[in-house]
Amino acid sequence: MKRDFTKLLDISRDEVTYLLEKAKYLKDIRTRGIEHRPLNGKNIAMIFEKASTRTRVSFEVGIHDLGGNAVIMNANETQLGRGEPIRDTARVLSRYVDAIMIRTYEQGVVEELAKWASIPIINGLTDLYHPCQILSDLYTIAEFKGGFDNLKIVYIGDGNNVANSWIEASILFNLNLSMAIPQNYRPLDMLLEKAKKNKKFMITDDPYEAVRNADVINTDVWVSMGQEKEMEERKLAFASYKIDDDLLKNAKSDVMIMHCLPAYRNQEITDSVFERYQNIIFTQAENRLHLQKALLEWLLT
Ligand code: CP
Ligand code: NVA
Asked: Treating both helix axes as pointing N-terminal to C-terminal, what angle do 107-116 and 86-96 enclose, rounded to 10 degrees?
């Protein structure tokens, strides 16, 4: 039976662990210039209804590395953008390609695509989730820290797609996850209910409380794609959720700072903190490539 990756909880803890191992292997052989082409003869469509730099390039390069062919579809240049139903698009594309990656607004669109397509569907970001990002971020933490089981992981900022996917990761792995998110911008209730069963999970309004003894701190933009009209009110609501030197005094001295990018300097993170941790942040971006290659190979072979 085909599998989809519409959100992190579509796959099990063991499957995530397998993908992290596989990504390590794929990163290693790529560094050594060893060819590995399990997607020879396979086509993967990528539908974009929102902008992207990392997701677009890491998937396209990854598909090419694995011997496959990427078909890029900007939604506003396709019939989808003119109102062709998802269920028809799903069945048409299933006749041409072997998998679809989609970046869109509504999670329901990804689920509808998964329901009607006979091929694997990958969520490349919706308003609710960003599972490829968090799968890859787990890998990056393990790469720098040797694992994530005994670490205090913190998320500061908006209760958005990235935050929801972090909560899914915490449910899957019983992570020690602390979140500092303003009351009016909290993640999905349904996920918080589940996450709170784990005594190591906490959510607060106070970033100083959340980062105490942190091993890893994640943040994301205050204004996600599609929320541009809320820019001014969001800047006010999140003003005290900036990652700066003062906040970092409360974290461990060897804390990792992560940002899924794009970053807005001097909003969610100061320029000096960003530049001090740039190696981690750009390795985090690179690892999208290796992780998504592992995911594609697993779903397609
Ligand atoms: N982090 C991330 O998904 O980046 P893009 O929006 O550039 O794809
Ligand atoms: N939360 C951000 C993530 C961008 C990769 C957004 O949805 O715009």
From this structure: 50
